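Recall that a protein's primary structure is simply its ordered list of amino acids. Everything else, from secondary elements to tertiary packing, is in principle encoded there. The following example makes that idea concrete.
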Amino acid sequence: MHDLLPVIAAGIVSGSAYALLALGIVIIFRSTDTVNFAIGDTATLGVFVSVTAMQAGVPVAVALLIAIAFAALFGVATERFLVRPLGAGHKSLFIALVVTIGLGLLIHASIGVIWGHRPITIPAIVPGTVNVAGVALTWNKVIATGIAIVAMVGVAWFFRFTTVGVAMRASAEDHFAARIVGIKPGRIAALAWALGCGLAAIAAFFLAMDTSANANLTISALFRAFAGVFLGGLTSMPGAAVGGFAIGILDNIAGRYLSANYRDTIVFAVIVAVLFIKPAGFLGAGRKERV
């Protein structure tokens, strides 16, 4: 256990992508009661659009912004044309869930048709490595973690101190009362989908730089992000972020000290045990809220 600190540091770095994806999932869920299973594929599609831009000579940093903008706009279009027409009610929410699953499969297949199935390497924003707590980490991972933390702080500030953010919180607390005072739920939902998918695109872009751009880019990360969401609480944005980082740390500890082959099993066994104790997650509300 002498190397526990470096293992935790590496886990925090890995968990930044999970935390961003988890935060995006919760923001969308709290605004429209929809669990967007297509969020990972939407982010991956944004990455591939940015890859095309880079192949045309666009700098990597600008390509990151393109990926975020594309994923955000795609998220808005998904909410406006696929989810909103389904209306409200438990039946519609279930249909919306199925729709996002189908959309994700469609995006996944489309990426293979348009860009092929060969992994595409994305150049690092800053090449090289740095030593953090005794662990040699690529600058990409360090920058990704920094951006993830800044993004989470920015989201927290947005929801607490801006008029639009307060309106989104009000709509989350009481959808009908918010409508009475003039808050338009359609605009709130569109903004939430843009924000959620944009955050997911940041995570996907740095995952692609760390490995490569491919159609399966976010499958494993999304799996862990959902684990983080359920660990922290489906209705809690801070809980989602903390849950994502916790999954990254737990994943690394299980792989380092127990068995790399069973790290998924170990991680999810711990989560199941936690959910038996607190089904709503550590920071989640005990009841489902319509935001």
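Residues 4-32 form the longest helix (29 residues). The two ends are 44 Å apart (CA to CA).
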